[in-house]
Amino acid sequence: MKHLNIGIVGGGFMGLTLALRLSQWGNRVTILESSDQIGGLASPWRLDDISWDRFYHVISLSDLNLRGILRELGLEDSIRWVETKAGFYTAGKFYSMSNAWDFLRFPPLNIAEKLRLGSTIFFGSKIKDGLPLEAIPVEAWLRKWSGSGTYEKIWRPLLKAKLGDAYQRVSAFFIWAYIRRMYQARQTGLKKEMFGYVPGGYAKIIAAFQSKLQQLGAECCVGCPVQEITSSAGQVRVSHGNGSANAFDRVLVTVPSPLIPRICPTLSETELAGYRACEYLGVICSSLLLRRNLGPYYVTNITEEWVPLTGIINFSALLPPEEIGGRYLVYLPKYVLATDDAAFAESDDAIRQRVLTVLQRMYPDFRSEDVLAFQTARARNVMALPTLNYSATIPPAKTSLPGVYVVNSAQITKGVLNINETMNVALAALQWLAEE
Ligand SMILES: Cc1cc2nc3c(=O)[nH]c(=O)nc-3n(C[C@H](O)[C@H](O)[C@H](O)COP(=O)(O)OP(=O)(O)OC[C@H]3O[C@@H](n4cnc5c(N)ncnc54)[C@H](O)[C@@H]3O)c2cc1C
Predict the structure, then answer these.
(1) Of 43, 196, 268, 292, which is the most exposed, with the fewest CB atoms less than 10 Å away?
(2) DSSP 154
(3) What is the per-residue pLDDT for 234?
(4) How many angstroms does the Cα of residue 264 sit away from the middle of ligand 1?
């Protein structure tokens, strides 16, 4: 792939990674991004007077693709690695779950249940290829390896917190991929959880990406929603909301699967049906700037079904308050099905009221005056649900429209959704595209 005129639809990290390599190979690349900035789910926003990630993002030691690209952008050495702790909120109390000692003392489980939970995590982390697990329902796999007691007390509430009732359609691949990622965040030998961030957050990474792409001659068109893609006579035509259009030799579409039938309506019926059938999870995530610290854990997992949150992400466990004017940054995410219109329609005020009431119940000394800023972000199409035999249901990346390829995060089949896996899909696609 050299000296071609290539359009990339979507300026998230998938689009940016493809654009970087394709420009380096000597192609003329144009990114077409609908929103007013590139970065997609990792893009920043303003929260009071700070600019930070709209959705929390950390880097894991094992994120080798991402770290490689940060090296190219001159940012790898600036990553701050921090040893973090994980917690559980269960039966109205917080428990640390950060090392073997915490695990042994964890009261909700008896010793036999702990042994089974520990061995599920340990042996799960040793499985190298999670693909065969796609054929097994997550509940069946967890009940088999962890036992029903541990399943009911720990796994089922965690699955429900993350996936709602959709957990019943999900395969064991999902939990395997999570276990692997969490395990990989732990330094071998020391078994300490380490996560990193670049000072300045993803805003800094995106700015460096943008200037690298500019140096390479790639163009980033923001505020440019693609309306329709058609292909004829060796050219791909991309039309925009504003009535203009571009012609390209190749177009790579990186947007979430549910959006593809709308912008590529002339795909075959089988392809359209494949994209329509792909179920997505979205997220509704409030960011808070607090006067006080919410505790020592980066992630607090929640097993109480009355708490309408997937977890509590205390970003100040990594980001020192001094860097954000002495305040503490907390994210409160709730994952919901992309089709849950009622959840996405809830007003900011209603979410704020509900969430603060929940925090007051969880942290009895929490006061609404502790909240200095509160803002809620929503993203409907975040992650394809890893249903049974998921990878067999993904439509081929090379579409029936000549010159049009779909390379999106729904093609992640080796791990959980994160930027490193997203880049993995991009880099693998580039390999086969180069051989086309
Ligand atoms: C709450 C949350 C927490 C996360 N935490 C982490 C973490 O800690 N670490 C980590 O590595 N990853 C994390 N991730 C995952 C990470 O954000 C994603 O893996 C990554 O951003 C996916 O990039 P993408 O380019 O595939 O998709 P997106 O970022 O969704 O990009 C798609 C782009 O396409 C654009 N688009 C859509 N329709 C059109 C159209 N018609 N025309 C033009 N453009 C269009 C969108 O505006 C968007 O910019 C998190 C995600 C969320 C939501």
Answers:
(1) 268
(2) I
(3) 87
(4) 20
Q: 336: CA distance to ligand 1 center in Å?
A: 16
Q: How open is the CA angle 33-48-356, to the nearest 5 degrees? A: 105
Q: Model confidence over 292-321: pLDDT tens digits?
A: 999 999 999 999 999 999 999 999 999 999
Ligand 1 centroid, distance to 19 Cα (angstroms): 15
Decide: 412 in ligand 1 pocket, CB within 6 A. no
Residue 187: CB atoms within 10 Å: 13
Helices 64-72 and 13-24, packing angle to 10 deg? 60
Q: Which atom of ligand 1 is nearest to the CA of 38?
A: 49
Average pLDDT, the chain: 95
> Does the C-beta of 313 come closer than 6 Å to ligand 1?
no
User: What strands lie across the sheet with 245-248, from one edge to the other?
Assistant: 226-232, 235-240, 245-248
CA 404 to chain centre: 25
Residue 233's pLDDT is 86
Determine the distance separating the centroid of ligand 1 and the alpha carbon of 42, expressed in angstroms: 6
Closest atom of ligand 1 to CA, residue 226: 42
Proportion of the chain above pLDDT 70, given as a percent: 99
* Atom number, ligand 1, closest to the C-alpha of residue 381: 30
Of the residues 20, 45, 255, which should be mutated to test ligand 1's pocket, given the most ligand atoms within 8 Å of the CB? Answer: 255
Q: What are phi and psi of 297, to 5 degrees?
A: -95, 140
Given this model, what pLDDT does residue 102 score?
Answer: 87
Residue identified by tokens 């059938």 is: 277
Residue 41 Cα to ligand 1 midpoint, Å, equals 3
Q: How far is the CA of 418 from the centre of ligand 1 (A)?
A: 9
Whole-model pTM: value is 0.96
Which ligand 1 atom is nearest residue 419's CA? 11
Amino acid at 227: Q
- Residue 187 banded pLDDT, cuts 50, 70, 90: low
- Mean pLDDT, residues 349-362: 97
In the predicted structure, residue 242 carries a pLDDT above the cut 90: no
In angstroms, rounded to a whole number, what is the distance separating the alpha carbons of residues 296 and 312? 11
Kindly report the protein residue whose alpha carbon is nearest to atom 33 of ligand 1. Answer: 10
Structural domains in the chain, CATH included, are 5-80+199-278+393-435 (3.50.50.60), 100-187 (no CATH), 279-384 (3.90.660.10)
Angle CA 163–167–168, to nearest 5: 155
Q: Which atom of ligand 1 is nearest to the CA of 285?
A: 1
For ligand 1, whether the C-beta of 33 sits within 6 Å is yes
Measure Cα distances from 171 to 137, 141, 175, 176 in Å.
4, 9, 8, 9
